[in-house]
Design goal:
single chain, binds zinc ion, 7-stranded parallel β-sheet, 11 helices, TIM Barrel, 310 residues, hydrolase activity, 51% helix, Protein fluG, 7 strands, 2 domains, alpha/beta, Amidohydro-rel, Metal_Hydrolase
Length: 310
């Protein structure tokens, strides 16, 4: 970790299960500033719904009306607690992996109640509770955006680049326009460079004050040429005070190392070229680097960090 010179890790601790993960605080030994949590909201919601389903199944009657009202109350209180918690830097939604980014803003209560029945029945037979029902996933996202916005915490969205579990055509952030507009005071961070939809993400970042673009995960997943192209696309239209680097490092420490090293090399190459062509001055390029690697994230996630220069 030393050569990465990462000062502070923001870690999504809802990835995998408790026995495959170190506690988020364990990572403090590698950085000069303490690690903060990113709360994966679908995992929180599933935990709450599992508890309610257990209670109802034990009592011997399943009432969708009661389940929905209890679920809404508990989800609201859990997310509100996260907003108040200084250990939480923000939220992450994996709606993209479940039912796609064409998230609906207006949801009808009878539809939500109806969607609960198959979720509970599946849980009763399989003993696993996974929310992959569009209306319910959209409800969780809307609830998160509302509460996060009230508390000033950003909400990250998985967009684009993933595995064959996502429907590629539903992973473009262009589909998010209705929710971006519906929650103008909620900071929305588009993750993973939205690859291969980087230009669409750039457009949204340019035209909506509440949208930010995180250019992670392409390191080391794309070829070096591909990484260069994505960085160029990010810089085509995105305001440079709204772009943020990340490693998307997980499971293997090398993913932090490569994510840091390759991002620096590629951004250096792209900006150096711009300076040579006199598109940018050296001073402007330095400002872009400072913003992308430190200042923007420091501001968006309310980290209040002073840069630790080694
Ligand atoms: Zn993701």
């Amino acid at each position: 970790m030393a050569p990465t010179r990462i000062q502070c890790i923001l870690i999504d601790d809802g990835l995998g299960s408790a026995w495959t993960l170190h506690h988020y605080k364990w990572h403090d030994q590698f950085t000069t500033s303490p690690t903060k949590r990113i709360v994966r909201v679908e995992i929180v919601a599933e935990g709450i719904l599992r508890d309610i389903a257990d209670e109802q199944l034990q009592a011997g009657h399943v009432d969708p009306k009661t389940i929905l009202s209890t679920f809404t109350a508990r989800l609201t209180s859990e997310l509100t607690a996260c907003v108040m918690d200084t250990e939480v830097a923000g939220f992450k939604s994996i709606a993209c992996y479940r039912t796609g980014l064409d998230i609906v803003v207006q949801l009808d209560t009878p539809g939500l109640e109806r969607s609960l029945v198959p979720i509970i029945l599946r849980y009763e037979t399989t003993k696993t509770l996974r929310i992959a029902d569009k209306i319910m996933n959209d409800f969780i996202v809307n609830t998160t955006l509302r509460i996060a916005g009230e508390g000033g915490k950003p909400v990250q969205f998985h967009t684009g680049l993933g595995d064959n579990d996502i429907t590629l055509s539903l992973s473009t952030p262009a589909l998010m326009q209705p929710i971006i507009k519906a929650y103008p005071s909620t900071k929305i961070v588009l993750l993973h460079s939205s690859y291969p939809y980087t230009q669409q993400a750039g457009y949204l970042t340019a035209v909506y004050p509440n949208v930010y673009l995180d250019f992670g995960e392409i390191f080391p997943f794309l070829s070096v040429d591909g990484q260069r192209d994505v960085i160029k696309q990010v810089l085509e239209l995105c305001p440079t005070n709204k772009i943020m680097w990340s490693t998307d490092g997980h499971y293997w420490p090398e993913s932090y190392y490569l994510g840091a090293l390759q991002a620096r090399e590629v951004l250096y190459e792209v900006l150096e070229n711009s300076i040579r062509r006199q598109d940018l001055t050296l001073a402007q390029a330095i400002e872009i680097v400072k913003r992308a690697f430190f200042e923007n994230a420091n501001k968006v996630y309310n980290l209040c960090l002073q840069p630790h220069i080694v």
